[in-house]
Amino acid sequence: MLEAFITNLGRYNEGYLDGAYLKLPAEKEDVQALLKKIHVDGIRYEEIFITDYETDVPGLYDCLGEYDSIDELNHSL
Questions:
Q1: What pLDDT shows up at residue 76?
Q2: Structural contact between residues 59 and 5, judged by C-beta atoms closer than 8 angstroms
Q3: In whole angstroms, what is the distance from residue 17 CA to residue 61 CA?
Q4: Helix (H) and strand (E) counts for the chain?
Q5: Most exposed: 18, 31, 49, 66, by fewest CB within 10 Å?
Q6: Which fold does the domain 2-76 belong to in CATH?
Q7: pTM
């Protein structure tokens, strides 16, 4: 099990925490819905970062970073 808290980087830099957990692996539609929910529209806000992970796999948390790609994480599982 792996869940990542995806955060809108632009909004974060403006002082707001727009983010949500995404359970991985996820369908493309689920990723797009999450990005819409946190206002990453590809126009005004394009960048995300990952501010938390939840996993039951020992040692995995230490291998994950803030700027990991959702696509790469999704395809690795």
A1: 85
A2: no
A3: 22
A4: 3, 3
A5: 66
A6: Ubiquitin-like (UB roll) (3.10.20)
A7: 0.92
